Amino acid sequence: MKITKEEILNMPAGREIDALVAEEIFGYRWVEGLLAFEQPCLISPEHYDETKTPITNTNKRKIGGTFPEYSTEISDAWEIVEMIKASQTEIRIRGMDWYDGGGWNVEVMDIMSEKVTHESYIETLYPEEGSANVCLAICRVALLTKIQ
Hints:
22% strand; globular; Double Stranded RNA Binding Domain; alpha+beta; 3-stranded antiparallel beta sheet; two-stranded antiparallel sheet; 5 strands
């Protein structure tokens, strides 16, 4: 994955970060030539046909196919939390509320649960659709674990 920490921490919620999580965290693959889709799409590992050609040129990527909405749906984001926990790694999620907003802090701990190895903090101002939320913080911290 050729993306920096700063780029990850500045990614907004949406299908672009969802696709990156699907690919980097859950092993989805970009494929082309599927009859159901006119454009290249992401396919989950259990549905990936090895005879198809994975797309590696990022300039060709178009987001298609069906994959979870990790950055906006809590049930989808929770799959990330469960995957991190299954690797026997502690993940901490804390929410804070103030009179004019709030925030979410998501931390992944080292193997001994002694220090934070990766962290994502999101300040929330309004409960508008598409605004920063805990789902996005979970996505960001998961991606951070893949670059370091």
